[in-house]
Specification:
The chain is mainly beta and about 220 residues long. The protein has one domain: Sandwich (Immunoglobulin-like). Strands 1, 3, 6, 7, 8, 9, 12, 13 and 14 form a nine-stranded mixed sheet that branches. β10 and β11 form a beta hairpin. The chain is globular. About 40% of the residues are buried.
Length: about 220
C-alpha cells in the first residue's frame, strides 16, 4: 500500500489565489506517478503525475499529464467526464466506508459523487461541486478529441466543506485513505491507470479497499 506524507502549502493566505497554488505545487518537484497498469486489456500508459498539499480550508492537487489523445467534450457539472481525458481523486476521510470521488476533464468540468461503492454512489449537488476552484491550461471551452504529443495540467482546490457527509475540521495529523487515477473511457486509445494498484478483474475505480494512505503532516 502506497503512502504519501502531505505537507502544508507554503502561503501567507488562508485562501490563496489559484495561480499561487499552482506555482507552490510546482515547487514540490516531480511528485507522485499515476502509472500502474492493472488490466492487460488496457495497456496504454500516458505520463501522469501529481502533487498534493493542504491548507487551513482546502486540499490542493495539481495533475500533470502528457498523452497522445486529449478530449474535453463535457462542459456541464456532473456529466460523465470519465469519457473525456480525465484525472480523478477518490478519498475516504473516515473509517466509515464512505468515500468521495472527484473527476476532472482538461477544461475543469467536474463530476463529484459519494457513497460506499459503485452500487450506491450518488452525484453531489452542483452547488457544492462548484465551490471547487480549478485552474487549467486547456481553457474553459469544450473541444473534440485532438491528437499529438500533448501536455496539459489542472490545479484544483477542494474545500474541506465539500466533504459534506463528514465534519473534517483541521487536517493536521489526520490520515485519509485515497487513490488517484487517470482514464479516458472514450478516447481513441482508452486507458485506465492508477496510483495505488487495484486488484480487480476489470477496470473499476470505485473500490476503496484498494486505496492508499494520505498522512497530513
Amino acid at each position: 500500500m502506497r503512502i504519501i506524507e502531505v505537507r502544508r502549502l507554503k502561503t501567507d493566505r488562508e485562501i490563496p489565489p489559484m495561480a499561487e497554488v499552482s506555482a507552490r505545487l510546482d515547487e514540490l518537484g516531480e511528485g507522485h506517478r499515476i502509472g500502474t497498469v492493472n488490466w492487460q486489456s488496457h495497456t496504454y500508459k500516458p505520463e501522469v503525475r501529481f502533487n498534493i498539499a493542504w491548507g487551513e480550508k482546502e486540499i490542493y492537487i495539481k495533475y500533470y499529464v502528457r498523452e497522445a489523445h486529449v478530449k474535453a467534450e463535457k462542459g456541464t457539472t456532473n456529466e460523465m467526464v470519465c469519457e473525456d481525458s480525465c484525472v480523478e481523486f477518490f478519498v475516504s476521510p473516515e473509517d466509515d466506508g464512505i468515500y468521495y470521488n472527484f473527476e476532472f476533464n482538461p477544461i475543469g468540468t467536474t463530476l463529484m459523487g459519494s457513497g460506499h461503492g459503485r452500487h450506491d454512489s450518488a452525484r453531489t449537488d452542483p452547488a457544492i461541486v462548484n465551490n471547487i476552484r480549478r485552474l487549467t491550461t486547456m481553457g474553459s471551452e469544450p473541444f473534440p478529441e485532438i491528437s499529438g504529443d500533448i501536455s496539459w495540467s489542472i490545479t484544483v482546490a477542494i474545500p474541506l466543506g465539500t466533504f459534506f457527509r463528514h465534519s473534517v475540521g483541521s487536517l493536521a495529523g489526520k490520515s485519509f485513505r485515497a487513490n488517484f487515477y487517470k482514464c479516458g473511457d472514450k478516447l481513441t486509445t482508452p486507458h485506465f491507470v492508477t496510483w495505488n494498484p487495484v486488484g480487480t478483474e476489470k477496470p473499476d475505480y470505485h473500490r476503496p479497499e484498494f486505496f492508499g494512505i494520505l498522512k497530513f503532516i
